[in-house]
Design goal:
2 copies of one chain form a homodimer.
Chain A lengths: L1 H11 L22 E3 L12 E6 L4 E6 L7 E3 L10 H21 L5 H23 L4 H13 L15 H12 L4 H16 L4 H12 L4 H14 L16 H14 L8 H9 L3
Parallel strand pairs in A: 1-4
Antiparallel strand pairs in A: 2-3
Helix pairs in contact in A: 2-3, 2-6, 3-4, 3-7, 5-6, 5-9, 6-8, 7-8, 9-10
């Protein structure tokens, strides 16, 4: 919703088609002021200047980033989120984790202090989701959960970080663009498969994740613990669970590949790799 | 230096005596814009809107806080701090820790996520100080050290925190106001004595500190490890080392008591308690 508001706010003062702005290349110079009240914390849009939006005609899910799009005021009140359903709480939790993990696992360098900060967000989300699934009106747990959501994407997780990408997001955006599933549900499907596939490319970081987030020793155990947590909070971990059929894999891979090309990541993710990755999510 | 700039920036546009603004009560409405380049990271003034300054005529060391005093631009470049002396590095390290510890030990409530954030800053300062004392031009360690200094006082350590005070700062300010010693050196003297005295008022927090910052079990061991670290980095831990004579204790206690009264903390710190506390620093 805040992302839509950002695109509308930029579109109103843009002398042209607003979709021109949503291609990760053009950045709007100006926008109306945005005042928002959060009903759900996950995207982190309340404390950043980016937006991702689906063009339903072209089935593209792209976005923009511009200092003009920072919300002027964001009201983030724990009480207002106590009625979020358990499913959407789980999807939100996975979304917040994915904002951390895309960066954490792909970055070529993360300062120790920033890595600890990211692990703190992950531990906070995991701990408070467990509490909130039992008692949705736990004020302290909700406060920490929604603050973790904001902090996960307000820029603080990128301090001193080099060479990070947003792999699972690029993959998932096509899933929720082509199939009408919540972004967090799509990420819940992507993350276990992607981390298993990606782990060998950054084994030390996965070991650190295993140790500091789940208190286990090996990278494989960490990835397994994370998958078990997703299952435990009742989020989907397979394409089947989100009703993406087996014959949908090829068109989906082709759709993702377009985004991958825009991000200049086609060498890492040729269409065969994407197909294999999606097949491992069945 | 940035604190002085803030007071000057507020004083230029204030229609009266600038010292009126420096009493923790009046807050300036306006100030000139401040652009700063850091030569030393410790105070955190580069990312907040507060200032503390000494009036040498009255020997008062008070300050103000005002949104008008936020620096417009702060240039924080690790390279520019590689020539900081080992003594000033140590004083800076203690100052940053004290910004965290005053809040951490006195707060009646700290969210788990914020406590973990504070512990991350403390661990970062301790780890990088050890590296920088050996190699002052270690760019990565310096980057983390100076970022820790900014984060320790940019508001992020107070998220969701209730009932915190700045005890060791209130005590130390009189020391550096009456005796020309660096603020961080004074804090190095105050902290071991104060934490030993204060520990019984918040034993669980001290146990957490011991466990999460120094990897030891009991609060006493944590306080001891912290004192040993101050000694190791060659900062002073006694009044004698900073040339405050024994007959200086009574006037010092009287001076501190005035600040304590302004902060409304006279029940916790009657003048006898301050005298005992200072005596334990001999």
């Amino acid at each position: 919703m805040i992302d839509s508001a950002k695109v509308i706010a930029a579109g109103v003062v843009y002398d042209g088609d607003v979709w021109d702005l949503c291609n990760y290349q053009n950045s709007p110079d100006a926008a109306l002021k945005i005042f928002d009240i959060l009903t759900l914390s996950a995207a982190g849009s309340e404390t950043n200047c980016s937006a991702v939006i689906t063009n339903e005609e072209t089935t593209e899910k792209f976005g923009f980033s511009s200092p003009a799009a920072y919300p002027s005021v964001s009201v983030i009140n724990p009480d207002l989120q106590s009625t979020v359903t358990s499913h959407y709480l789980a999807y939100s939790a996975v979304d917040i984790c994915s904002h951390c993990l895309d960066l954490y696992f792909t970055a070529s360098y993360i300062p120790e202090m920033t890595a600890d900060h990211i692990e703190n967000i992950l531990k906070t989300v995991i701990r408070t989701t467990d509490i909130l699934l039992k008692n949705p009106s736990d004020y302290e747990a909700r406060s920490e959960f929604i603050w973790a959501a904001s902090v996960a994407l307000n820029g603080s997780t990128r301090i001193g970080v080099e060479g990070n990408r947003f792999d699972t997001h690029l993959i998932e955006h096509s899933m929720s663009a082509l199939y009408d599933i919540p972004h967090g549900a799509g990420l819940a499907v992507v993350l276990p498969a992607w981390t298993s596939w990606h782990m060998s490319m950054n084994p030390q970081r996965y070991e650190r994740f295993a140790r500091n987030v789940f208190g286990v020793q090996r990278g494989e155990e960490g990835v397994e613990a994370f998958r078990n947590w997703i299952v435990k909070i009742d989020a989907p971990v397979s394409l089947k669970e989100v009703h993406i059929p087996e014959n949908g894999i090829h068109p989906l891979a082709a759709h993702i590949f377009r985004t991958i090309q825009m991000a200049g990541m086609q060498e890492l993710y040729p269409i065969e790799t994407l197909t294999d990755l999606l097949s491992s999510m069945r």
